[in-house]
Design a protein that fits this description.
421 residues, alpha/beta, Aspartate Aminotransferase, domain 2, 7-stranded mixed sheet, 4-stranded mixed sheet, 15 helices, 14 strands, binds ligand KE4
């Protein structure tokens, strides 16, 4: 099978003349899987269409935000209403307060929340607050986890850093990188040892790893991080940019019953508009400028009315049955993708297909699977009308716009793709 991608190829070549790699984010590069990316033109529900007119069932969902699918009527009309009153004020609006109230209501560990324009800004700010309040400099993250592209996180980083072979990015000063310790995901003993030997300001973790492929927390792992943090006065930051409002109404903290000191959010809370947020216990958040010791933080478009309107329209209707539906669709897809030599790891509506290498508990396990087979599978799925993240080190997402028929069509494409490898 081959795809007609001539218009995409021309558009991509034009993009490459003025943008590094022809992309606005490294994760979108098709280098890890080969070939040129389709240049997308539109989306509706569970589908996207490229500039050649090819239609795909979309499992990227803009990397997580589109939990209700593309161009959802509620979100389009909320945006239309907001934009008719202006695009930005640089002042508090009732729209951001309303979304903040929703976050506080659904995340019991969050007393106060502040909006940013990206998840990266949120994690940057959370680490700065942890350092400011604890008076400590050293942080601990996990190998293969991605928390955005701020310097402290580009040490053993996942997602695009891993896909492109630079988990320790050039350009990060040694003095900065040396303040970031790393441990294998799911290795609580390693964390306990580091906490005993170093004065850690914070432990930052994706409660479900989504940036080295989907890796669930081992039983007791998150609880151990909570216990170690309490023992050593460490700020536990749960980076819920992916999992927040995705794997449960109250995110990973609801699903796994472990509370963070600080939580970072993004993606779904903006419904596809630029957004991030950090929030948590009053003892930390009451030092965010202009309060308390005034840990500096700001952003021209933070809490902008369009993202707030889209975020509220996305989240407000999501109740328990929405998550039951996502669980049902995710389970249907997981069952259908299972095949000899294929491992599917899933939490709710986020999942990853791996080829070989057995169960994945940490980054080292992931590096043992067959990356070449993944690349060939990715291309075969694209040729069969299924749009997936172009890297083994990512999760993909089912939305509420996907139907059983869509899931079954993806499964059929998968089986045909496997046969073609
Ligand atoms: P943003 O700055 O991209 O909004 O959020 C950074 C971030 C923080 N924390 C977690 C757990 C994340 O997954 C992310 C961003 N996720 C990637 C996908 N793995 C976004 C895709 C991209 O970088 O283009």
């Amino acid at each position: 099978m081959s795809l007609e991608l001539s218009a995409s190829r021309d558009a991509f070549e034009r993009a490459c003349r003025v943008m590094p790699g022809g992309v606005s984010s490294a994760a979108r590069a098709f280098g890890p899987v080969g070939g040129n990316p389709p240049i997308l033109a539109s989306g509706a529900g569970a589908r996207v269409r490229d500039v050649d007119g090819n239609e795909y069932l979309d499992l990227v969902g803009s990397w997580g935000p589109l939990i209700r699918g593309h161009a959802h009527g509620d979100i389009v009309s909320a945006l239309g209403d907001a934009v008719s009153r202006g695009t930005s004020f640089g002042a508090t609006t009732e729209l951001e307060t309303r979304l903040a109230e929703l976050v506080v209501e659904r995340m019991p560990s969050v007393d106060l929340v502040r909006f940013t324009n990206s998840g990266t800004e949120a994690t940057m700010a959370a680490v700065r607050i942890a350092r400011g309040v604890t008076g400590r400099d050293t942080i601990l993250k996990f190998q293969g986890c991605w928390h955005g592209h701020a310097d402290p996180f580009l040490v053993a980083a996942g997602s695009s850093a891993l896909s492109l072979g630079q988990p320790d990015s050039p350009g990060v000063p040694g003095a900065t990188a040396n303040l970031t310790l790393t441990a294998p995901f799911n290795d609580a003993d390693a964390v306990a040892g580091m906490a005993a030997r170093h004065d850690l300001a914070c432990i930052i973790v994706e409660p479900v790893a989504g940036n080295m492929g989907c890796i669930p927390p081992a039983p007791g792992f998150l609880e151990a991080l909570r216990r170690i943090s309490d023992e050593h006065g460490i700020c536990l930051i749960l980076d819920e940019v992916i999992t927040g409002f995705r794997i449960a109404r109250g995110g990973a903290q609801e699903r796994f019953g472990v509370s963070a000191d600080l939580t970072t959010m993004g993606k779904t809370i903006g419904g596809g508009l630029p957004v991030g947020a950090f929030g948590g216990a009053r003892r930390f958040m009451e030092h965010v400028a202009p309060l308390g010791m005034c840990v500096s933080q700001g952003g021209t478009l933070s809490g902008n009315p369009l993202a707030m309107a889209a975020g509220y329209a996305t989240l407000a209707p999501l109740a328990g049955e929405a998550y039951d539906r996502l669980e049902q669709l995710g389970g249907r897809l997981e069952d259908g993708l299972a095949a000899p030599g294929v491992e599917v790891q899933r939490v709710g509506s986020m999942m990853t297909v791996f080829f070989g290498g057995g169960p994945k508990r940490c980054l080292e396990d992931v590096t043992r699977c067959d990356m070449d087979r993944f690349a060939r599978w990715h291309r075969a799925m694209l040729e069969r009308g299924v749009y997936l993240p172009p890297s083994q080190f990512e999760a993909f997402f089912v939305s509420l716009a996907h139907t059983e028929e869509d899931i079954d069509a993806i499964i059929a494409a998968h089986r045909d793709a496997l046969a073609s490898l």
